[in-house]
Specification:
The complex is a heterodimer. By secondary structure, chain A is an alpha+beta fold. Chain A contains two helices and ten strands, in the order H-E-E-E-E-E-E-E-E-E-E-H. In chain A, the strands form two sheets. In chain A, strands 2, 3, 4, 5, 6, 7, 8 and 9 form an eight-stranded antiparallel β-sheet that branches. The longest helix of chain A is centred in the N-terminal third of the chain and has 21 residues. By secondary structure, chain B is α+β, with helices and mostly antiparallel strands. Chain B is 50% helix and 19% strand. Chain B contains 31 helices and 30 strands. In chain B, strand 2 and strand 3 form a beta hairpin. In chain B, helix 16 crosses helix 17, helix 26 packs parallel to helix 29 and helix 29 runs parallel beside helix 31. Classes of the chains: A alpha+beta, B alpha+beta. Chains A and B meet through strand 7 and strand 8 of A and helix 5 and helix 18 of B.
Chain lengths: 132, 1068
């Protein structure tokens, strides 16, 4: 019984494998799940404003009424975070919910940012941020 | 030999032309009934449960409890039929849940409840608003969930689409409630601008009043002119945002102040109040999109008594149509739940099992009686089932897993009558002592009456199960009813159809005409060699009895040794489970969303997960569990639900319960990192309960109860196998209490209500009316509120003003209309939110809940384990807490604890089944006394009953299975079967002795002659049960029937004749 099952599986697996090869292949091909690394202009730590946290306005994007930004994790992975925002102070926005002190966000939103992508700072902007 | 009922009946039908017609007719109605009976997965259970929401704005939990919950509970317990009354007293509202005894008529209960409540409404304190009464029923559980998701559209657009689709779907026949979860509604927001309000001397209250007054239209009457009536109508409803903006809210200087001058009027989505996302996971088909997308779920419930699968098909077909029109490109509709499909799946699997069981049994019969005999038996089964299904249809049962289970359960038993009759006809044909027709009738006469007795014995065994009370009752009742009906039909078929078929199909082998001699058959030789030594030597006989006795004791000893564990029902293999996340009270929506998202990201990587959908700030579509657990009230900012959909069960190896166990650690690790509590919730195999393990803690004060609950919770957490520990005590939430300075307010000419209303409007927002648009399907509310950025801290509230109503005292001359800042009139006190008060049956209670998984799968053992630790807890007063099992404590003076949850149902079920079993024994005893006219013989026959335990308990150990409620049912049914075997054996001994045979000879002959039908019938039961062995729920039953059947059949064939011999010998 078990042997017959295995024989049955073999051609099935083979066809699946072949079907997978023809198209959609680059999207996620089995073991290599890591999406390409994206280079971003700046990674900004969340600014601690005493009782509030602030992020640059440019980091935000809107999806209908929802406001989102990309948080850079410790492993340099991006994760999309929905937040609630309060007042705007110059070019910064007070975040009321969804973000912690000590986290870093992508300084300026671009549409190619994606959940789970690894990011890298481009060299020149890093210095710019440091000099600030 | 005189003719009994059986012989007479058979004589009538054996050559009648009506017999084949009857057979065909019953087959046809059965087939029709199978297609007409509605199909669903869960049995129709009326859990008459009503939720009462009684608002008492402004009251603290203690006040709500004392003024509302307590008096209401007291009056409700007066209603006959009420089983439990639970209540939760929260800030501003009391939720009272009334549970009627299972089986009470839902409509009548509602009426009684309503009249009792109304009778006492005048006793409610002022301020209590009109109660809302909601019946909770199994039909509220959506059977179909359609998730609308999109990578381009936002929740507002998605909801709009879903609403349009819902409107179309509602037109389908038999559809129940159609609801939409998530997304954002359209709203006209009046966003106040604080500076402008001050500048133009306008207050929020004024705006609210003006909007309400402008939004009116009225038919004023008619004027009569020249024999004509002309209708006069005045006013105009607000139709768009512009209308709202143009409302004059005040006069400043000499010019009117329009609403648009002091606020921005926005027509669009409401403020974000929920997050609902959908994503494909590891097991999704290749090429599925990777990310997660805003989603809105459309849930479809069915009308009571309709067919879930037909409805689901209709809805899906309609949605596919709508994809061309209402559903815009870019919105994908994914089926995230289809109980119709799972029901069909379940029903067809069970029907398949039924077929396999019948075929297997036929093959076994074929071995003994040849293919002709097998054909006779095979033909009788469909007729029996056809008639049973017809009765199901007529009794308004649906085809669900319980009703079909009843059929599978009896497959092995219903063939028995036919087997016994066919076998005996076969034997008589082979003996060739009489002409064919005469032989057939003699054969039927010989076994007919004991068969009737035997059938009623089996019915007597299963029927008392109807009396199982509590929630498990409706689960079980189709079983005894279905099984009893099937037995009666099988008896009729055996007496009417089987003789007709046997007479035509069975052949008398022509040729050798030698006289039949029983002593030459193999069975006789076998039993002669086995039984003779025991009959001849009383020492050997007692040895044999001793061995059997030891086996029995050994088998029973396995239970206290925990080699076989008891559990009510094991988990079924489902295609879904839920993760319920509770963040500490006071957690922001976005923070909850973030944790939920993180958990989802983990679940996404689990190889068996196909898709997931999370709901934050709004409850996920409820399942069977959610009904009892009130998951439909999970609509707070600190709550998140994740619906996890697995790949279909035939595409994965792991059972859903094992997957749930596997992910639990990972999920809880993430939740703990953010101080949250995550639980994995599986669909219960039986009736849903609050939680598998529930400790109810009673005591003199809430503080003491909570203190003890904390200790109990620690014990729970420290016990291996106890998981998902939680308690129903809220975390401390910060509250800013704005205390109005009465003197100052009075001097300023401001009332406390004005302040409260203004603040509420500014912070929570206030709906001041609805837009009168003609083309919108959902009501569009008009809301007045401050923008998010000016209501996030206490400082923000300084800019809110109220208008003085004037103060004409001697010292101050404050004119009416003066703007007074609220901050001047109130003092901020920081407090901790008072905790909700839970009550059960008029007593305050604190619940500690948990589930069991891993080390122990059965709550009973975890409870026994924890009992010892709980008894050692130190409480003020220095007494020990002895957890109670069956009844609540007598008084609240001392702290006390009672176990509840699954235990309560387990206890009730096993108690009722145990009682049923005792009643069964008495009934069987009476039946046999009636037949054999002896007090002693029935006792000999009933010896076989305990012998089944020798097989059943070790059988469970071999399979590593739990002894469940279904095992117990198997054991009870087996009692009937075993007694029937004894009846057949002893009946034959008595016939032979009446014919003049010697006792020893009669005993051995009877064993020899009856072995074949007994092995055949028991074999049918065993073989018929094998298909059930792979079903997680019915495994226990299968093990009972198979192992119990095999062992007790073998033992019966030896022990019963021996005991009978001994008894008869002594009496002589």
């Amino acid at each position: 019984m078990t042997i017959r099952n295995k024989f049955f599986l073999f051609p099935a697996a083979l066809t699946l494998l072949l079907a997978g090869c023809s198209h959609h292949e680059p999207e996620h091909s089995g073991s290599v799940m890591q999406p390409p690394t994206i280079t971003v202009e700046s990674i900004v730590p969340v600014r601690d404003g005493g009782e509030v946290v602030l992020v640059p306005k440019s980091a935000l994007f809107m999806r209908g009424e929802m406001v989102g930004l990309y948080v850079v994790g410790r492993d340099n992975r991006l994760s999309l975070r929905w937040i609630r925002i309060g007042r705007t102070v110059h070019d910064e926005v007070v975040v009321l919910g969804g973000l912690d002190k000590g986290e870093s966000v992508v300084g300026s939103y671009t549409p190619e940012l994606m959940d789970g992508v690894t990011v890298k700072k481009s060299q020149h902007t890093t210095e710019e941020v440091q000099s600030r | 030999m005189n003719e009994g009922i059986a012989g007479k009946l058979a004589k009538q039908f054996i050559n009648s032309k009506i017999t084949p017609l009857l057979m065909v007719a019953s087959l046809l109605v059965g087939i029709m009934a199978t297609f007409m009976t509605p199909r669903e997965e869960e049995p129709q259970i009326v859990v008459p449960m009503v939720d009462l929401y009684i608002p008492y704005p402004g009251a603290t939990p203690a006040e709500v409890e004392a003024r509302v919950a307590k008096p209401v509970e007291r009056t409700l317990t007066e209603i006959p039929g009420v089983d439990y009354v639970y209540s939760t007293s929260m800030h501003d509202v009391a939720v009272v849940t009334v549970r009627y005894k299972v089986g009470e008529n839902a409509e009548k209960s509602m009426v009684k409840l309503w009249s009792t409540l109304m009778k006492n409404m005048d006793k409610m304190p002022a301020g209590v608003q009109f109660p809302l009464m909601k019946k909770v029923s199994i039909d509220d559980v959506p059977v179909l969930n359609l998730t609308f998701w999109s990578s381009t559209k936002d929740p507002y657009q998605l909801r709009k689409t879903a609403v349009e689709v819902a409107d179309e779907l509602k037109k389908i026949k038999d559809i129940g409630d159609v609801d939409i979860k998530g997304g954002l509604r359209r709203q006209v927001k009046i966003v106040l601008q604080k500076e402008k309000l001050l500048q133009f001397n306008v207050t929020p209250l004024q705006i609210a009043r003006q909007v309400q007054m402008s939004n009116s239209q009225m038919t004023d009457g008619d004027l009569k002119q020249m024999n004509q009536q002309i209708i006069v109508r005045s006013g105009r409803f607000l139709e768009n945002a512009e209308d709202v903006g143009n409302i004059v809210v005040g006069i400043y200087g000499a010019r009117p102040v329009y609403l648009r001058d002091v606020a921005s009027v926005v027509d669009g989505p409401e403020e974000v109040n929920n997050y609902n996302f959908f994503g494909f996971a590891a097991a999704a088909p290749k090429g599925s999109l990777q990310g997660e997308y805003p989603a809105v779920t459309l849930t479809v419930a069915k009308r009571q008594g309709s067919d879930a699968s037909k409805l689901a098909d209709k809805v899906i077909a309609r949605v596919n149509d709508l994809k061309k029109s209402s559903i815009p490109a870019g919105v994908t509709v994914t089926e995230t739940r289809n109980y119709g499909a799972t029901a069909t799946d379940k029903v067809s699997t069970l029907l398949e099992h039924l077929l396999m069981a019948v075929v297997a049994v036929t093959i076994v019969v074929g071995f003994f009686l040849g293919w002709r005999g097998a054909l006779v038996v095979l033909a009788s089964v469909p007729i029996t089932f056809a008639l049973t299904l017809l009765i199901y249809f007529l009794l308004d049962y649906s085809l669900n897993r319980v009703t079909l289970f009843a059929l599978i359960f009896v497959t092995g038993i219903v063939v028995d009558d036919s087997i016994i009759i066919a076998e005996n006809i076969h034997r008589h044909f082979a003996m060739k002592r009489q002409p064919k027709l005469q032989a057939a009738i003699t054969a039927i006469n010989e076994v007919g009456n004991p068969t009737i007795l035997a059938t009623f014995t089996v019915i007597a065994a299963v029927l008392p199960m109807v009396f199982v009370s509590g929630l498990m009752g409706p689960y079980m009742s189709p079983m005894p009813i279905g099984a009893s009906l099937a037995m009666i039909f099988s008896l009729l078929v055996a007496l009417i159809a089987t003789p007709w078929l046997s007479y035509r199909l069975l052949k008398t082998e022509a040729g050798h005409h030698e006289e039949y001699d029983i002593t030459k058959t193999g069975y006789y030789k076998l039993f002669n060699s086995i039984l003779s030594p025991f009959i001849e030597s009383s020492f050997k006989r007692w040895m044999a009895f001793g061995v059997v006795g030891l086996m029995l004791v050994g088998a029973i000893a396995l239970v206290p040794l925990k080699a076989v564990q008891m559990k009510m029902l094991p988990f079924d293999n489902k295609n879904e489970f839920q993760v319920i996340l509770d963040m500490p009270e006071g957690t922001a929506l976005e923070q909850t969303a973030r944790v939920t998202k993180e958990i989802s990201a983990y679940l996404k990587t689990v190889p068996e997960v196909k898709s997931y959908q999370y709901y934050v700030g709004i409850n996920a579509p409820i399942n069977f569990n959610g009904l009892v657990r009130h998951y439909y009230l999970r609509r707070a900012d600190n709550m998140g639900d994740i619906q996890v959909n697995l790949v279909p069960k035939d595409e994965r190896k792991a059972q859903s319960h094992d997957i749930a166990k596997k992910v639990r650690a990972g999920v809880q690790e993430i939740a703990r990192r953010y101080n949250g509590n995550a639980k994995i919730v599986e669909i219960p195999p039986g009736p849903p309960v609050l939680s598998t393990l529930v400790a109810e803690i009673y005591g003199p004060s809430q503080e003491q109860q909570i203190a003890l609950a904390k200790e109990v919770k620690k014990v729970f957490e420290a016990t291996p196998g106890v998981v998902d520990v939680d308690w129903m005590v809220e975390d401390d939430q910060k509250v800013f209490n704005l205390v109005v300075n009465k003197e100052r307010a009075a001097f300023r000419g401001v009332t406390a209500e004005q302040i409260a209303q203004t603040l509420r409007m500014s912070i929570a927002g206030m709906d001041v009316g609805v837009m009168h648009t003609s083309n919108e399907l959902e009501p569009v509310t008009i809301q007045v509120r401050l923008p998010q950025e000016s209501r996030s801290s206490m400082q923000d509230l300084s800019g809110i003003f109220v208008q003085s109503q004037g103060m004409g005292s001697l010292t101050t001359r404050l004119r009416a209309g003066e703007m007074i800042p609220v901050s001047e009139l109130v003092k901020v006190e920081e407090k901790v939110q008072e905790k909700s008060i839970y009550r059960k049956d008029l007593r305050r209670v604190v619940y500690v809940t948990a589930d069991v998984a891993g080390a122990t799968e059965s709550p009973v053992y975890a409870m026994l384990d924890m009992d010892k630790k709980i008894q050692q807890l130190k409480v003020p007063g220095g007494y020990a807490i002895n957890p109670l099992y069956t009844a609540s404590p007598n008084s609240d003076e001392k702290l006390a604890m009672k176990w509840d949850g699954e235990w309560q149902i387990t206890f009730e079920v096993f108690r009722d089944l145990g009682t049923a079993f005792a009643v069964v024994l008495v009934i069987i005893y009476l039946l046999i006394i009636g037949w054999f006219q002896s007090f002693k013989t029935p006792l000999i026959m009933m010896i076989a009953i305990p012998l089944s335990l020798v097989g059943i308990i070790p059988g469970h150990m071999l399979h590593g299975a739990f002894f469940t409620a279904t095992s117990m049912i198997g054991m009870i049914a087996l009692a009937g079967i075993m007694v029937r075997n004894s009846v057949l054996l002893i009946d034959f001994i008595q016939i032979r002795r009446a014919e003049g045979a010697e006792l020893k000879q009669a005993v051995i002959e009877s064993a020899a002659v009856r072995t074949r039908p007994i092995i055949l019938t028991s074999g049918a039961v065993v073989i018929g049960s094998i298909v059930m062995l792979f079903d997680p729920i019915f495994q226990g039953l299968a093990i009972s029937l198979i192992w119990g059947g095999v062992l007790s059949t073998i033992l019966t064939l030896v022990v019963v004749p021996l005991v009978y011999y001994m008894a008869e010998k002594k009496s002589r």
